[in-house]
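Attaching the record inline, Q. Sequence:
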Amino acid sequence: MNGRDRDGEGRARSARPRDGLGRPLPYGAAGVERQPEGVVREPAGTVAEAQRLLDAGMPFHAHEVFEDAWKSGPAADAPLWRALAQLAVGLTHAARGNAVGGARLLRRGADALAGRADAYGIAVAELVGWARELARRVEAGEHVDAAAEAPLLDGRPRRV
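Structure, as predicted:
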């Protein structure tokens, strides 16, 4: 045994706590609860859980919810969930201060969504516009607060 952290099934998995943006914290620090992996949800449950996490400023964790949907759902829906995961990771990188990676992932997700029809209550065109505008602002050097910048997946304007 090499001393690496392992999950319940013996796979290598860091046991270090993480913050809301998925950054590892020192052992023993108070972190946020991790998203369980491999959860199968109905699409409405995926959208609701991801929105809850986005609203809480935890886009890294929302990405994991989208990733579960992409890996466990119908193959026809995989591109939608993968693109949404890219948007969530793009927001994560932008909030961590990684402008290049954040903008790149926001654009990649927007490009993958562009032209798709709305599905499961997700306002695709509004998300594409949000992602492209945020990518532009991130590249211009604007600071990003993950909770304040989180999109509403249904396209409604966020009330401030």
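Residues 21 and 60 are 5 Å apart (CA to CA). Helices lie at 43-55, 59-72, 78-96, 99-113, 124-139, 146-149.

More tomorrow.
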